Amino acid sequence: MKETTFWNHLEELRWAIIRSLGVIAVLTIVIFCFKDFVFNSIILAPCKESFVTYRLLCKLADFFHSPGLCPEIGSLNLININLAAQLFVHLSVSFSIALTLAVPYVITEVWLYVAPALYTNEKKPALKGIIAFVVLFFLGILLAYYVIFPLTLNFLGSYQVSEVVPNQISLNSYISSFLSLLFMIGIAFELPVVAYFFASIGILKHSFLKKYRKISIVIVLTLAAMITPSTDIFTMMLVAVPLQLLYELSIITVKNVEKRKGNKE
Hints:
Shape: flat
Order of helices and strands: HHHEHHHEHHHHH
Radius of gyration: 22 Å
Distance between the termini: 32 Å
Mean pLDDT: 85
Largest sheet: 2 strands, parallel
Number of helices: 11
Helix content: over 70%
Low-confidence stretches: none
């Protein structure tokens, strides 16, 4: 069997990067061409009363006879104050969505490049970790898009220190908050994957995570209160519960890693 040299590895890596960039470029162009659908049906959808999250909350409010659950969506009008801002926003949003959609392909390229160097007993755990990374990332984005961002937008978009100071939200501010929040929640959902990695190299123990469970609850509730600065406990729990479940999942993940190591020994 012919050995692969360092330069062969470098060439494979180069082509993997080129293919990944090519996929991202093609997706960016395609998404750029569907401007009306992307902005009206996805990016700006949380600005509308007909957004699915608002309708579901209002149905829950009717079912539980609790009007406070139904958000009062005011008229949220975005403004643009820079000449070229809308063009640059269109470009940045197209690239951001393309980059997000390309995550599974890029991860696949990474797997195809790394897999030959792994032992047989290492491939299955590594593949599970990659699949978990992709699934959790998109679950985080979906939670942010359908729950966290709409509720945050509804609160901050209608908050006023005085009636003489109306809210006029710039397009750049809206897009920046939208993209950064979705990305941060997507990354936050990688907690079990990070825990799995540190447990695999022996740095993290499940006993440590169990010891600080109570502290984690306080931290999660604080983060939830910051993300959804509303007096509605139901809204805060919509954010806090998934984050705490991720912590519990991390404990289970680390415990399974330790158990597998013990069996090998």
